[in-house]
Specification:
It contains three helices and 13 strands; from the N terminus they run βαβββββαβαββββββ. By secondary structure, the protein is of the alpha/beta class. It has a domain of 133 residues: P-loop containing nucleotide triphosphate hydrolases (Rossmann fold, 3-Layer(aba) Sandwich), CATH 3.40.50.300. A six-stranded parallel β-sheet has the order 5-2-6-7-1-8, with helices on both faces. Strands 12-11-13 form a three-stranded antiparallel β-sheet, with no helix packed on it. Strands 3-4 form a two-stranded antiparallel sheet.
């Protein structure tokens, strides 16, 4: 007996900076465009590094998008015939992005989200951690450690040539001017409280 699966799910692409998250999101969107899927793409207003009307990977791949300041602005922009919703840099949104993604997936929409799973301190972005637990599919990408060449899963923030302090603000938008990929062993955060086993 033939069984048709139900449409609508959440997939999350995560990892450290320079792991290719946005590039993977754009690649998936290009594939879906060949299938004539009706899609809409969003990014947060705070991410103005490369373009104010496109999501752009570090390698220069790009795709047009809507720029929204708050997650609640997304739902009114979803037309009835939309099949795919893509959201880049999801870690910059408030917790309501989780409910919005669930709502859209429950309505039969394929929801694709990309973002940093951890901040420069190596700690989880709460929104991304929750999205990961709600997702049907998770792709965790790694970069290459800028110091030793090992698989990098952490984002190193560097200010004036020195590792950032644990007390610095969590959000600082930038690219290779402030950040580089690091492995677990080369990742440094000054004044970070020691964890006991």
């Amino acid at each position: 007996m033939y069984h048709q699966y139900q449409k609508g799910w959440l997939e999350v692409i995560c990892g450290c900076m320079f792991a290719g998250k946005t590039e993977e999101l754009i690649r998936r969107l290009h594939v879906l465009s060949y299938a004539k899927q009706k899609m809409v793409v969003f990014k947060p207003k705070i991410d103005d590094r490369y373009s104010d009307h496109e999501i752009v990977s570090h390698s220069g791949m790009k795709i047009p998008c809507y720029v929204v300041e708050q997650a609640k602005e997304i739902l009114p922009m979803i037309e009835e015939d939309i099949e795919v919703v893509a959201i880049d840099e999801a870690q910059f949104y408030d917790r309501s992005i989780v409910d919005i993604c669930d709502y859209l997936a429950d309505k039969g929409i394929r929801v694709m989200v990309s973002g940093l799973d951890t901040d420069f301190r190596g700690e989880a972005f709460p929104v991304m951690a929750e999205l990961l637990t709600h997702a049907e599919f998770v792709t965790k990408l790694t970069a290459v450690c800028a110091k030793c060449g090992a698989p990098a899963t952490r984002t190193q923030r560097i200010i004036d040539g020195e590792p950032a302090s644990f007390d610095d603000p969590v959000i600082l938008v930038g690219a290779n001017d402030y950040y580089e990929p690091r492995c677990r062993h080369c990742h440094e955060v000054t004044h970070k409280p020691k964890k006991e086993a």
